[in-house]
Design a protein that fits this description.
Shape: globular
Number of helices: 7
Strand content: 25-35%
Radius of gyration: 16 Å
Number of strands: 9
Order of helices and strands: EEEHEHEHHHEHEHEE
Length: 203
């Protein structure tokens, strides 16, 4: 899916949540969008996946198509699982939402997890890998919301994001500036219009 955000801005009840930001990402590409805390990571993720209507600017495709074909992964306060839930309950809930039949035991084994572990205790790498694995199989766009809030090691989430782009999906990672500076590409920036090209991967 070719996704274009043109000068997207979001205003909340108490002022701007996201200043005008532009981005384009195509199938098989990985875009990193960096910003400091409070610059609108989640607001941009919600707009990119059709969950909110921007206060200014536009996103293509339209919101209805984005809601069908895009997934916002682990957005704080929005799609992140409750910390106190057991891993097996998180898996069950996500499978129910996607209406996909998969073995919970196989998923636990695949990610090296035990059923009764509280989700807040899941290591960062396993967390992002599991939540990605539970995303709708038909999703053409994945937007990862600040995976760096769980770990200082970009190696805990970069391989998962890269693999998804290599599989043909369009992928956007929203993260902090310090994490983006450790990645092998030039990040886009929240609040900017002229953005560098995403990393084009090879399947």
């Amino acid at each position: 899916m070719d996704v274009r955000a043109d000068r997207v801005a979001v205003t909340g009840a108490h002022g701007p949540l996201l200043r005008a930001t532009s981005l384009r990402v195509r199938p098989g590409e990985l875009a990193v969008v960096a910003g400091d805390p409070g610059q609108g990571h989640t607001a941009f993720g919600l707009a990119l996946t059709g969950r909110i209507t921007p206060s200014a600017g536009s996103v293509e495709p339209g919101a209805a198509e984005l809601r069908e074909r895009a997934v916002l992964v682990d957005a704080p306060g929005v799609t992140e699982p409750e910390a106190g839930l057991k891993v097996v309950d998180v898996i069950a809930e996500e499978l129910a939402l996607t209406r996909v039949h998969r073995s919970r035991t196989d998923l636990l084994d695949k990610h090296g997890l035990t059923a009764r572990t509280r989700f807040e205790a899941v290591p960062a790498a396993a967390r992002i890998a599991l939540l990605t694995d539970l995303a709708r199989p038909a999703a053409d766009l994945l937007v990862f919301d600040t995976p760096d809030r769980h770990t200082a090691d970009v190696g805990d989430w970069w391989p998962t994001a890269l693999a998804q782009a290599q599989s043909g999906r369009a992928v956007v990672v929203l993260c902090g500036t310090s994490a983006a500076d450790r990645l092998p590409l030039t990040p886009a920036r929240l609040g900017e219009h002229d953005q560098p090209a995403p990393l084009e991967t090879l399947s």
